């Protein structure tokens, strides 16, 4: 398992590098931000270059993990389909090839013959990152790769990534929107139970290099399996522990009734808003908020699997809000924690993997109980 964690940290950094290259290299950036107009509007491809960036990252992770752990190859799932139609109406399946040149040729077919963009992207895909200091040595987890599956969210908070607003992160403060909300999320779950057991989060745009070297990233990881709970972050002191009352992070589009119900627990300035489901859970992991509440079924397994594993390693978790409100125990038990192995059979497409009941991400069970009590009978 330590080998798998080291590999995931490495491929997440490669993914972060692809995300940075797509913003730093002019030919790729133009594709990223351009919107099709007029007659071009119905041409299926290049307006969706952002989807290609997602797919390339997803397939790169799938390729690298499958190469080292072939027994996992059929259980590496992502948000995106890897089938594309180019401007000529040709169908192209995006995969990572054995060499940079082969990958560039395949990407050029998707990009309507744009060889410059294809070469830049292929170079980033095949470039190995610098060594990652992860202090994973000595970590032993009694699981074999054949028991595990993976969920990938190549770039969570895509809209923030495209918009590209640069914010300077203040230590100890949640910053509601901007490039830092875009995350690479890789979550590992047990195939038998769906429990999240390992998570890697890479924040490609954490800070700007003072010497003009562009963006630098930051990574976070956690392992939670039986009695083994290890996280790259120590358990933070939350707002309520420092006497400032409970703080809750929400989506700005959250229902009014939820916002009003939560004001009984926290003062108005402790209800904060942020972009990206992954980033909001990361805020709870880092102690920038105590709890994240979402009443809609608008997140998916790939959004929550990785950060869920980190929260479990810190003694918290992510529960299904609807099930928690219906539960007689009133909060967290095995019945209400999110799992990652079974689709909703009655849904189609991506909705089969939605977290339909909404969610609550928390570090402390007593805070989860307070949230569930405040929302009971309101939704």
TrEMBL record:
<dbReference type="InterPro" id="IPR000760">
    <property type="entry name" value="Inositol_monophosphatase-like"/>
</dbReference>
<keyword id="KW-0378">Hydrolase</keyword>
<protein>
    <recommendedName>
        <fullName>Inositol polyphosphate 1-phosphatase</fullName>
        <ecNumber>3.1.3.57</ecNumber>
    </recommendedName>
</protein>
<dbReference type="InterPro" id="IPR050725">
    <property type="entry name" value="CysQ/Inositol_MonoPase"/>
</dbReference>
<dbReference type="InterPro" id="IPR044897">
    <property type="entry name" value="INPP1_dom_1"/>
</dbReference>
<feature type="binding site">
    <location>
        <position position="156"/>
    </location>
    <ligand>
        <name>Mg(2+)</name>
    </ligand>
</feature>
<feature type="binding site">
    <location>
        <position position="153"/>
    </location>
    <ligand>
        <name>Mg(2+)</name>
    </ligand>
</feature>
<feature type="binding site">
    <location>
        <position position="79"/>
    </location>
    <ligand>
        <name>Mg(2+)</name>
    </ligand>
</feature>
<comment type="pathway">
    <text>Signal transduction; phosphatidylinositol signaling pathway.</text>
</comment>
<dbReference type="GO" id="GO:0046854">
    <property type="term" value="P:phosphatidylinositol phosphate biosynthetic process"/>
</dbReference>
<dbReference type="GO" id="GO:0004441">
    <property type="term" value="F:inositol-1,4-bisphosphate 1-phosphatase activity"/>
</dbReference>
<keyword id="KW-0597">Phosphoprotein</keyword>
<feature type="binding site">
    <location>
        <position position="303"/>
    </location>
    <ligand>
        <name>Mg(2+)</name>
    </ligand>
</feature>
<comment type="similarity">
    <text>Belongs to the inositol monophosphatase superfamily.</text>
</comment>
<feature type="binding site">
    <location>
        <position position="155"/>
    </location>
    <ligand>
        <name>Mg(2+)</name>
    </ligand>
</feature>
<dbReference type="Pfam" id="PF00459">
    <property type="entry name" value="Inositol_P"/>
</dbReference>
<keyword id="KW-0452">Lithium</keyword>
<dbReference type="GO" id="GO:0046872">
    <property type="term" value="F:metal ion binding"/>
</dbReference>
<comment type="subunit">
    <text>Monomer.</text>
</comment>
<keyword id="KW-0460">Magnesium</keyword>
<dbReference type="InterPro" id="IPR020550">
    <property type="entry name" value="Inositol_monophosphatase_CS"/>
</dbReference>
<comment type="function">
    <text>Mg(2+)-dependent phosphatase that catalyzes the hydrolysis of the 1-position phosphate from inositol 1,4-bisphosphate and inositol 1,3,4-trisphosphate and participates in inositol phosphate metabolism.</text>
</comment>
<keyword id="KW-0479">Metal-binding</keyword>
